Amino acid sequence: MCLCAFYGRQHIHDYCQPYTLENWRSNIKLAAESGIDGFVLNVGKEDWQLDRVADCFAACKFFGGQSPSRFKLMISFDMSSIPSSRSEHVDCLVEYLSSFGHHQSYYRIGGRCVVSTFAGEACLFGHAGLHAAWKHVLASLNSVHPVCFIPSFFLSPDQIKEVELLDGYFNWNGCWPVHLSPDSPQEEIRVPSLNSDGHFIRHMRGRRYMASVSPWFFTHYGEDSWNKNWIYRSDDWLYVRRWEQLVSLRNSIDIVQIISWNDYGESHYIGPVDGAQPNSQAWVDGFDHTAWLKLTKFFAVAFKTGIYPAIDEERIFAWARPHSKDAVATRDYVPRPDNWQLTEDLFWVVIFAKAPSTVSLWSLDEFPRSFEINAGVSKLHCPLLDGGSMHVEMCRGASEVACLHTSDFTFTSRPEIYNFNAYVATSP
Fold first, then answer.
1. What are the pLDDT digits (tens) for 311-335?
2. Domains of the chain with CATH codes
3. DSSP state of 251
4. Gene3D superfamilies recorded for this chain (predicted)?
C-alpha cells in the first residue's frame, strides 16, 4: 500500500517555479516524516516545468542517505492544460517519461512506471473516441517505458468499467461531498456521506484503485481570472472522517493520494506555504495547515498496517473559518462563494488522549462547553462567536494535560474579503 501527496493542482511550475534543490529536499523530508511515501507531480504544458521536475528527482535521489531513496515520485498529466487535439500532442507526455521513467525514484508497480492524470476523458489526440485516443497515448508511452496507467477520468463507474485499457482508476472527487447543494436535505448536509468508492471498486475487476483524501476545499477567483468561486462542505472533521473510512476499506485500496500538498488556490494544502502562490494570498497568507501533517502521520500508519497506533502524546487539533458564513465582505469584488450555505459557524476539534479526560471548549470566555471523553481519538465541535477565538483545555483530575488557545485568530462577522479557508492549529 502506498500513500502519496498531490503536488500542485495549478501545474507544478505555478507553485514551484522559484524552488531550489533545498526547497525540494525540505519538502520531501517533511512529507516523509509525516508518513507520506511519495509525491505525485502534476505537470502542464509549459516546457520549463521539466527543469523543476528534474530538480525534484535530483533532491529525491539520495534522500535520507539511501540510494535508491524510499521516497518515490510519479507524474500526473494535467489534461486540462496539455494540448490534445492532434496526434503529435502526445510528445509532451512522452518527453516526461523519457526524461524520468528510468529514474530510481520513479514509483513503479510490477516494474511499470505509474502514470496518472487530472481529467483526460475528453482528450482525443486526433482520434474518434476515448479508447482509440488513449490506446495511441499508451502505445507511445509504453514504447519508452512500460507504464501502469491510473488516470482520474471524470466518468461514471459504469463508464470506467468499459474502458478496458486502464490499469486502474483514481477517484479524484471521492474525498469531498461534491453532490451537496443548498437544496440538499439538512440531514444529508450534516455529516454527509462519502460513499463513491464502493461504486468504483466493484468495477475494478483486479485493476488498481487509487482513493483520495482531502482536508478542505475553497477557491475564490473572479470572472477576470480562473472564474472559480465555490466551496465543498468541509465541516464534520472531513479529513479525519475520510481517513477513518479509507482505513476501513484498506483491503480494497492500493494507493491513497492526498489532495493536496501545496494547492493554495483551492485551500486544501497540508504542506507549508512555500514557493509561489497563484494569486491566492488573500485567503492563504496567515492560514498555516501543517498541523494536519500530524494527523496525516497517525492515519498513514493505520492505513498501511491496519492497526491504529497507540496514542503516545496528548494533543489537541482545532480548525475554523475566519468569519461567519453569511457575512457581507466590505472590500471584495468577487462575490460570496457558491455553496456558502453548506458550512456552519463552528470550530472543529480532534483530541488525542492517553486516558479518559474532561475537555472544555469555548470561543468567548462566558460560553464554555465541557465534554467527558475516553482514551483514543475524540471529535468535538463548538460554536464560533463574533470576536471570539478557539480555546480548548484537556484536564485529568486537577491537572491540565494539554491546551490550545489561538491568540492570533479572531472570528468576525465583518470581514473585508470573503475567506472560507481554514485556520488550523495544534497544541504545543
1. 999 999 999 999 999 999 999 999 9
2. 2-305 (3.20.20.80), 315-426 (2.60.40)
3. G
4. Glycosidases
